[in-house]
Structure formats: C-alpha cells, structure tokens
Amino acid sequence: MPANSEVLRTVKIDVAQARAPGMGRGVVVAVIDSGIDLDHPMLRGALLPGRDFVDKDLDPSEEGTDGDAAYGHGTAVAGILRQVAPEAKLLPLRVLSPNGSGDADSVAEAIRFAVNQGAHIIHLSIAASVSNKGVRAALQFAVSRGVLVVAACGNDGSANPEAPANALDGKNPLGQFGVSVSAVNVDGTFPSWSTRGGEVLAPGVALQSAYPQGQTVSATGSSFAAPLATGALALALAEGKDPAVLAARLTSGAMLDASQLLQ
C-alpha cells in the first residue's frame, strides 16, 4: 500500500524485492492468530486451506465485531505479509477468540499442524506473560524440522520479550531458527508501550493493512512489526537462501535490513 512506502523503505523491503524476482513464490507462511478474512481482496490468491483450533473446524475466518479487542488482528498481520512477499502462500490457523484470549494447547497444536503441512515459516504475532511447556515443545519440534519461527515480543513496555518470543533468543536451541521482533517508530526509537529485547527491530506504528469485510486499518503494535521480518525471510527463502543463515543475520538487535537477507 502506498501509505506504507516510508516504512518499507526504512527496512529496505524495496531493495529486497528488487533482488527477489520470486517475491516469495513457493514459500508457505503459517499465520497463527485470530483468523483471517478469507475473502479480503488484498489476500486473494494467497490463502491455503487452514484450520480453526478454537472451534475445532476447518474455517479459520475472523469472528466477532469491530468492538472486540482481537477482531481483525490476523487479517492485518496477513495483509502486511502480502505487501512484503506477495507471492508467498499464507496458511491461516485460528487460535485466538475475538477478545484476544487463547488456549496454549491450541497454539501448540497449531504449530505442529503447520510443520506437518509443510510451512517454511511459522508466524506468531501473539504474546503471553507466562511461557507454556507444550508451546515450547512444539517450537522445538518446528526447529527440529528446519522451520523458521518469527514471534512478536509484545506490547507491555518491559525490557524482556513475552512468550513465546522469549524462547527465541541466542541462548536457546530455537535461536538457530527463531527470530523475535520488537516494535519501534520509523526513526528507530521505542514507543513507551513497546517490549524491548527483540533480536531484530521493525517499525510497528500506524501500518496500513487489511481489515475484515474488505476494509483497511491503521495497525500499531509489535504484532505488525513482526510480519515485516517474516515477509523479508519469505523473499529470501524463495531465492534459495539457507534458513539458519537467514535467522542468524537477524540477531543483532538492530533495525531490520531486508536487503542483507538477499545478498
């Protein structure tokens, strides 16, 4: 979207796209979130058949209304991914209710499902104050299969990432394939609400993206910074880059530079 041009230039998505003629083609990104508006024009042609781990059915559509805290969250995440890697395929996996609540068992189940469905990247724009053993085990399973995991750090303003992003640091086996993302302003400064400690920083303020019922939204939070990194990784994977090497390049705690992933 033209409104995101400055953000995309800041993290050199424009340069990365110029170096990635496949634009993410052949890469599957699992979006574990609140569901997705399956009929949104911005996402047409990008979505694979997904699953709903809340209602235990095959329809991962967004549910709820505008007044619900998490309504539109997954759709906005997917919209940013589509802008960065327009040829990547998105696997929608619903684990959050419209109010933003979710069950750790559902998240773990969705992670394992994504791996078994051939996802190359698992995207987690979800955060919890307490880590969960089952989710950590599922992430370890993903790593054992060489799947990249990108997780948003959260929005509680603290110095340390929330779960599951706190399992993705360099002191953990997940560090080989995991990337945690903290949100910053476009000038690289931290908003007061941003959770620090991410392995990579990305703009997460007022990004324009998709919203249910074919609408658009201005989205703010680490949830919307993280898909910039995921999309950049998808661009690079589509060009045959090694996933472990890519993840290692996003561990400096500096602003995302998507162009370096395509060198």
From TrEMBL:
SUPFAM superfamilies: Subtilisin-like (SSF52743)
UniProt-listed PROSITE patterns: SUBTILASE (PS51892), SUBTILASE_ASP (PS00136)
Assigned keywords, A-Z: Hydrolase, Protease, Serine protease
Domain Peptidase S8/S53: 24-239
Keyword hit for Zinc-finger: no
Catalytic residues in the record: D33, H73, S223
Family annotation (Pfam families): Peptidase_S8
Family recorded in the similarity comment: Belongs to the peptidase S8 family.
Protein name according to UniProt: Peptidase S8/S53 domain-containing protein
